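Team,

Forwarding the record for the chain on the shared tracking sheet. I've put the sequence and predicted structure together so nobody has to dig through attachments.
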Amino acid sequence: MVVYIRTQGAKIVKEGKHLLVKKENTIYHTLFTYKLRQVVIFGNVEITHQALAQLMRNNIDTVFMSYNGRYLGRIAPPESKNVFLHKLQYQRLDDPAFGLRLARCIVIGKLANMATVLMRIKRTKNDPLPGRNAQEIRNLIGLVEFADHVNSVRGYEGRGTALYFEAFPCGFVQNMGFTRRVRRPPTDPVNSVLSLLYVFLMNRVYAAVRLAGLDPYPGFLHSIDYGRHSVVLDLMEEFRTIIVDTLTFSLFNLKILQKEDFFVEKSHREETLDPKADEVPDVTKDPMGLISVDETDSDIFDLPEQRIENGLDVSVAPMGKYPVKLNHDAFKRVIEAFEKKLATSFYYPPAGRKLTYSDVLVYQAGHYRKVIEGEAAVYQPVLLK
């Protein structure tokens, strides 16, 4: 179980064999450590020494984030003792042919998933742009297969991502001001949600990498750099589209999020609001995010016929250099939707049965390890159908 704690001014304390999330005399949550896989703490939340020791004794990944979702750091379980695996990971870095093969597989999976999402949009919008860009992305897959250097693979991945986000706005029912991917800071609601969900995804992939016993630093598609979790970034690529991008469409198109759920932060002060309970629509019912879709079904995504033009609606246009962020209640809905998405199950061929997205993250990290160890010749990414 993954728990998100965002009640500002709360304190996490130990009581017996479990933890309490308290604020003054009110108990907000009771956490049973034997059920916990990860605790994510946002903003001004204190944790006592005894509670922290309890989390550490039970090897529970504890992640610290700013109130608005910027990653700060973590207290993770002890490093894997498998020094031979870690040594092999670093030895693989000196094998350009191995790195090229693995990078190709990762990028082919990402490009294929992006093309699939664009084709789903194209079939419902009768708009040539998503279809045209999907075809260009598919053409890049052939180039990746014959690329002779990892830098070429990275170049094709960059080109595919640019084509994908050029057509990305066509997938929304309403224009939310998105024209291109903007990360630092996100200057429109869509970019704000994408950035937040990518951080959530990164945390879960990091935990999966550690469970697989891998060192998170020596990746292949993402070059090694000081402090960069390149393995985590490698494994995230295939899941960005499958989990985050399709969930973003669901959040806006099902009107779980609307423009009044966002605010422009013009100072470094972070607003705090009292938590409120909201019933969240079932984002897993949106066909855009299904792992497979019947190609004969023409009504897979309910979008209006008119095309979203490149011109922006002034009311939702990007607002300069200031970051656009979610208010408290909307932030909570995003967390709930993300966890519901990860709890959704689909047929996972390598296991021969249905698994949740959360479990598949762990399986794919294990598969990545098998490729490193030579037990599997080719890395097989998870693909939308």
